[in-house]
Amino acid sequence: MIGLYVAVRTFIAWLWLRFCRWCAQPLRLVLKSNEYYHKIVIIGDGFAAGFGDWITMASSGGLSEYIAHEISKEDKIRHKWQVINRGIVDTDSSQWHPTSSTKYFQSVMSTPQLRDADVVLVVVGSMDARRKTPSISPDQTLRNIQAICDALRKKGKRVCVGSLCHSDVVTECDGHRSINQALVDFCASTATDAFPVKITPDLSTPVVRRSDAKAFDGFHFNAKAYQQIARDSMMVLTPLLTAVEWSTWKKQLDGVKYDAALYD
User: Are 122 and 201 in contact (CB under 8 A)?
Assistant: First the structure.
């Protein structure tokens, strides 16, 4: 009976989330990026979508809503940033692979209102251990996430990859822990690249492991947890976003011509 309750509520919650996201972030109203207006797109599973959050018609839900709020409070960030939620509940890393038949990746990156995003947050992989047919091994999860990140970087995106969530199931948690360490190593290996991958948001932070941080399904997070994760993410996002802003300012300064005689 509990399983039926969770299944029905999950279905209704996902419909409501999609409807509210459509109301709050209709693609037809998303402006083209320019030197003063930038976009962050969040792709991935239910954690990317903000499943479990308390969502209203004026909210895009989850991390997109709370990260946007944190950005608006940060004095170091001067430009306008829109955080766009494109997460899909109950998807795994194989479905977001750039060559997957689902075409989730292509649908986001080929949409004119989304493909000019400066930053992409990849939050996927936490559902993989729950897949049975076909099963997805931790090694395959890691390869899928790396492929997603590499494809985005080839498109000139600055990429942040989220860690996999903490799970109360011991076998799942052990697998997630090993993948998270591998993701840290992967990010470290890109440190000298033009577009290094950053590790954030952290879905395994201790504060979100408690029962009072969980949604009704006992797996995804509630509003309190998403808010905390968004706040923590700003330690990585703030320097990343200011770097994007500085690059646009630098282009403008490089185009300025001046009379050297005035400075003699």
Answer: no
- Residue among 210, 239, 231 nearest 222 (CA): 210
Residue 112 buriedness (CB in 10 A; 0-12 / 13-18 / 19+): exposed
Q: Is residue 263 part of a domain?
A: no
pTM: 0.92
In a domain, 259, yes or no: no
User: Could you tell me if residue 108 is inside a domain?
Assistant: yes
CA-angle at 208, arms to 224 and 92, nearest 5°: 100
Instruction: Count how many domains the chain has.
Output: 1
CB distance 160 to 240 below 8 Å: yes
Q: Is the peptide bond before 239 cis (omega within 30 degrees of 0)?
A: no
Give how far Cα 213 sits from Cα of 95, 209, 222, 224, 263, Å. 27, 7, 6, 6, 60
Q: How many CB atoms lie within 10 A of CB 191?
A: 9
Can you say how many angstroms the Cα of residue 97 is from the centroid of all Cα atoms in its chain? Answer: 15
Does residue 107 fall inside a structural domain? yes
pLDDT (tens place) for every residue of the chain, 264 residues total: 557 878 888 889 889 999 999 999 999 889 999 989 999 999 999 999 999 999 988 889 999 999 999 999 999 999 999 999 999 999 999 999 999 999 999 999 999 999 999 999 999 999 999 998 888 999 999 999 999 999 999 999 999 999 999 888 888 889 999 999 999 999 999 999 999 999 999 999 988 888 899 999 889 999 999 999 999 999 999 999 999 998 887 666 666 565 556 555
Q: Structural domain of residue 221, as residue ranges?
A: 2-249
Residue-wise burial string across 225-245, b where 16 or more C-beta atoms lie within 10 A, e elsewhere: bbbbbbebbbeebbebbeebb
The domain that holds 50 is classified in CATH as 3.40.50.1110
